[in-house]
Design brief:
- The structure holds two protein chains of two kinds.
- The termini of chain A are far apart.
- Chain A is of the alpha/beta class.
- The mean pLDDT of chain A is about 95.
- In chain A, strand 1, helix 3 and strand 2 form a beta-alpha-beta unit.
- Chain A is built from six helices and 13 strands.
- Chain B is about 20% helix and about 25% strand.
- By secondary structure, chain B is α/β, with parallel strands linked by helices.
- Chain B is built from six helices and 14 strands.
- Chain B has one domain: Glutaconate Coenzyme A-transferase.
- Classes of the chains: A alpha/beta, B alpha/beta.
- The interface between A and B is large, with 41 and 48 residues.
Chain lengths: ~230, ~230
């Protein structure tokens, strides 16, 4: 099924000096979250966000399994089997944290009480659709809380690598994989650039050091631009 | 009530003393609601007690599909499971689920996590179904009744009952009142209400009256049996 990674994308990923590591990307994303927000952190890449955020800040992280106030990852000595995040990694809680059961956890998700949900994705389309639960034929389908979060949170931001392991762009005109939700993504944080999903498509808000818009556009099959067009 | 030797025996006694007693009466073909999110709150010993019985063809309702070799994974390994209804079967180490699923020996129904939880809640709360926007515009909307409510499209989801719920809590009394530990709570309170028989494994059983009523999370009215698991098997 998998094809050979596109040579030019491999080279691009290797040679762009400013390409962000997952921790750097998490810190960059966290910098855009205002204090006081309640933020769900989804399974996969985003779980590292709670570990890199400055502990002096007051962003309250929610984990779908019933934690409001997730802290950093747990050290070996503080591990508790019943204290894990959505990705089943051992975590700590912050002062002021609360536990709720699943029905309440998802009531506050669907009920619009979260300011933001950060999730990973297989594909994000320029109309704000995204796909992150099923690649037919290659994986066992797994939704978790993604569909509830996608329709329930006030905002959905995606954190992902821009290219999949086969070198295909995850930004696309329309998703070819089964959708998680329609038209909900507003920001996309990737290792190479940060995008806003506007009414007219993808706007590049930030490019990492050493990457030009022209170079990036050569590898992304959907129009990306620096400013909203009228 | 006074026993034959004049010793007062409790009128409500939900504590059982063996795992065999804890799972007695569970039949082949049963739908079993299984608490837990990954290993947090997973009733591993109760699930493994089913291996000591001859039940098979189980329909399991849980968030995940088991990982490693313990608990739910052991039931899959031994071929006791016919179907899994869950939100996220693709976890690290879900080797037995993967093997059985790819060999088409186990049927899978994936349900969004909040819809799964709410369907179970509806069953326990006497609600005949509910409308949610979760899944609208996706493959999961196929065949479901839709309704426009205040300008938004909703899907109708139906209640999900269990014949049995197996859950894990931290502390119980003999009336079955339960207190949980941290995020081990997860599906426990919801599942306890939605099954014909609810069995909770706990780390501690304390005298009646010693759990502060303000802190009871699942009241004993929803629990049929409690069993203390002394030492976690390794």
């Amino acid at each position: 099924m998998s094809r050979r990674p596109d040579d030019s994308i491999e080279r691009l990923l290797r040679t762009v000096p400013g390409r962000r590591t997952p921790r750097q990307l998490a810190a960059r994303l966290a910098a855009d979250i205002p204090d006081g927000w309640f933020v769900n952190i989804g399974i996969g890449k985003p779980t590292v966000i709670t570990d890199v955020v400055d502990p002096k800040r007051e962003i309250v992280f929610h984990s779908e399994n019933g934690i409001i106030g997730v802290g950093r990852f747990a050290e070996d000595s503080t591990q508790d089997d019943d204290l894990i995040n959505a990705g089943k990694e051992p975590v700590t809680i912050v002062s002021g944290a609360a536990f709720v059961h699943h029905s309440d956890s998802f009531a506050l998700i669907r009920g619009g009480h979260l300011d933001l949900a950060v999730m990973g994705a297989f594909q994000v389309a320029e109309n704000g659709d995204f796909a992150n639960w099923n690649i037919p034929g290659t994986k066992i389908p797994a939704i978790g809380g993604a569909m509830d979060l996608a329709i329930g949170a006030k905002r959905v931001w995606i954190m992902m690598d821009l290219f999949d392991p086969d070198g295909a762009s995850k930004l696309c005109e329309r998703c070819s994989y089964p959708l998680t939700a329609r038209g909900v993504v507003t920001q996309v944080y990737t290792d190479l650039a940060i995008f806003e999903v506007s009414a007219t498509g993808f706007i590049v808000n930030e490019l990492v050091e050493g990457l030009s818009l022209e170079e990036l556009q050569r590898h992304v099959p959907v129009k990306i631009r620096l400013e909203d067009c009228p | 009530m006074h026993g034959i030797f004049g010793v007062q025996t409790p009128m409500i006694e939900k504590q059982v003393t063996s795992l065999a007693e804890a799972v007695v009466g569970i039949r082949s073909g049963a739908t079993v609601l299984v608490g837990g999110f990954g290993n947090a709150g997973s009733p591993i010993e109760l699930l493994e007690a089913l291996l000591e019985t001859d039940v098979r063809e189980l329909t399991i309702v849980a968030n995940n599909a088991g990982s490693g070799n313990r608990g739910l994974a052991s039931l899959l390994r031994e071929g006791r499971v016919r179907k899994i209804i869950c939100s996220y079967p693709r976890s690290n180490g879900s080797i037995w689920f993967e093997r059985r699923y790819l060999a088409k020996e186990v049927e899978l129904e994936v349900v969004p996590q909040g819809t799964l939880s709410e369907r179970i809640r509806a069953a326990g709360a006497g609600i005949g179904g509910f409308f949610t926007t979760t899944g609208v515009g996706t493959d999961l909307a196929t065949g479901k009744e839709t309704q426009m409510i205040e300008g938004r499209e909703y899907l109708l989801e139906m209640p999900l009952f269990g014949d049995v719920a197996l859950i894990k809590a931290q502390r119980a009394d003999r009336w079955g009142n339960l207190v949980y530990h941290a995020a081990g709570r997860n599906f426990g309170p919801t599942m306890a209400a939605a099954a014909g028989l609810t069995v909770a494994q706990v780390s501690e059983i304390v005298p009646l009256g010693s759990i502060d009523p303000e802190t009871v999370v699942t009241p004993g009215i929803l629990v049929d049996r409690v069993i203390k698991i002394t030492v976690a098997k390794t």
